[in-house]
Amino acid sequence: MAFPPSVTPKPAVANLSPVMAATEALATGEGLKACGAIFTRTEVVDFILDLVGYTKDQPLHKKRLLEPSFGGGDFLLPIIDRLLSAWQATSSNHSVLDELGDAIWAVELHHDTFRSTYAAVVALLKHKGIAEKTATALAARWLSQGDFLLAPLEAKFHFVVGNPPYVRQELIPPPLLTEYRSRYPTIYDRADLYVPFIERSLSVLLEGGSLGFICADRWMKNRYGGPLRRLVAERFHLKIYVDMVDTPAFHSDVTAYPAITIILREAPGITRIAHQPAIDRATLAELASLLCTPTLPKGTRSVRELVKVTNGAEPWLLESSDQMALIRRLEACFHSIENVGCKVGIGVASGADKAFIGDFETLNVESDRKLPLATTQDIISGEVKWCGQGIINPFADLGGLVNLNEYPLLRHYLEARRELIAGRHCAQKTPANWYRTIDRIIPALATKPKLLIPDIKGEAHIVFEGGKLYPHHNLYYVTSDEWDLRALQAVLLSAVTRLFVATYSTKMRGGFLRFQAQYLRRIRIPRWTDVPEPLRRELAGAAIKRDIQACNQAVFKLYGLSHEEQSALGGNGE
To answer: Which runs of consecutive H residues, i.e. helices, occur in 458-574?
Structure first.
């Protein structure tokens, strides 16, 4: 089979620009994994095409569709099948090429993937009765090999669909990443590659056009998604959101946490939401019909409607409307946790735990050069049961690193592990400071009472530590000079805190939540001086007993929750 000139093998060119050389390296790299490819199941593809309105009863040959990263053709082949069915249902004297030539524009970076899918497209067209010469000409018109983020693009589209590549920034060659950043303002912080794919795809939508993507949901709540969320909020309508976490949406098991988003170029409006549908054709077809119907039937339980899901760069709030109303009221009436005398932090990262951490008693360094360490294992029961680990402290009390000549035991200990410690990235950047931990250690934190919180949990796991241990980097901590920590523990154990974290955090497999600092800082609480003495005792007593129902009863009083608000949290505190 003859391929179009754009995909014939290219000789090595010594004088390629750094950007082009980086692009070519990805295009000829280790196949699909190098380009972040994940294969989407046909049932899910058909579901997305139904949601954007790319259906056989429409004059699809008069529309234009973009597929920005077509990979093995998971979306592209069903799209062509629908296009041909819709076109063949019409009567026309025009040539196939004239009628269908502008209906699709699909892009793929990887050369070998492009060639195999190109062949599959031609084969499908021939199977549908189109002559080989015409089939080859259509494939050449529709398919383009190259980098979607850099390719010239003047056309606008009625539909954009697909599964954009999920590639971390560190896997993108620096010259290429620099070029991307210069073109796409949504590449912020540690944004993954799918973020600029969404930005550019939205930019080429016609008025009223629809984008339907399945991709990781991280950008909807994480810090790096802020600029893209703002773009959607200001210029587009998030029409449909379908949570696909823990569903078999792909042909293989993946670590991404996917969601389907349908975004229209039109004024913002109501968002329809569905969660974790069964992946079978009948269920998805019925759900698509519900999500797209002009008016939801009364009593519908599988689809909910929310207003103002998008709000500038703020994380998308996708819970129930009564829970969102409660969140908004608490945010309006109370202060953020760090504005009432509490501090949220994360424990120490050493960069080489095998060198810096060991049994406290047998760490052979000077006594003031080690600290007892709190790990997730120490608090697994809900109370602190120290397992005896310690961490080396290479920092002087007044700042900077200690002089190893003044600490012969520490020097001997570190030198014996120099290869491991000095091999870290942070040590190679500043060789003179080769023996520092990534985070500075401040011994006073160990002596301060604190609440310890592991990152990933199904429910809040808040443990009181009386001021003897230094937290490890797998633990977040909360300290306060104003709030009584036992009373605060009751608040953090309550359904109110879980609502805040569940609302703002990204979800993990199995329904687990991430109790990270950025989400804990979203929690709103009153000032300690505004809490009556009897309620103070009730909160602290409930926490000491670790009685979650009692914590909820006290916390509902603290916030003055109505019966309806208590019901929104799954109970009324009685």
So the answer is: 485-493, 495-504, 517-520, 533-545, 548-559, 563-568
Which amino acid belongs to residue 363? L
**How distant, in Å, are the alpha carbons of 87, 118, 120, 572 from that of 126?**
15, 13, 10, 64
Does residue 175 sit in helix, strand or coil? helix
Residue with tokens 């950008």: 219
Q: Where are the beta strands (DSSP E) in 337-426?
A: 342-346, 357-359, 370-374, 389-392
- Report the relative pairing of strands 104-108 and 65-67 from DSSP bridges: parallel
Which regions of 439-519 does DSSP assign to beta strands (E)?
450-454, 456-457, 463-465, 470-471, 475-480, 513-514
- Ranges 37-46, 194-203, 542-551: which has the least confidence: 37-46
pLDDT in tens, 261-294: 999 999 999 999 998 899 999 999 999 999 999 9
Residue of 403, 401, 407, 412 whose CA lies nearest to 368: 407
Cα distances (angstroms) measured from residue 154 to each of 67, 91, 470: 15, 30, 57
379, 452 contact by CB (below 8 A)? yes
How far apart are the C-alpha atoms of 567 and 551, rounded to whole Å? 16
pTM of the model: 0.77
pLDDT at 15 over 70: no
Whole-angstrom CA distances from 181 to 175, 188, 195, 325 are 10, 8, 11, 37
Q: What is the pLDDT of residues 352-404, one digit of tens each?
A: 999 999 999 999 999 999 999 999 999 999 999 999 999 999 999 888 999 99
Residues 329, 312: Cα–Cα separation, whole Å: 18
pLDDT digits (tens, 9 = 90+) for 526-552: 999 999 999 999 999 999 999 999 999
Instruction: Label residue 254 by pLDDT band (50, 70, 90).
Output: low
Do β-strands 357-359 and 389-392 pair in parallel, antiparallel, or remain unpaired? antiparallel
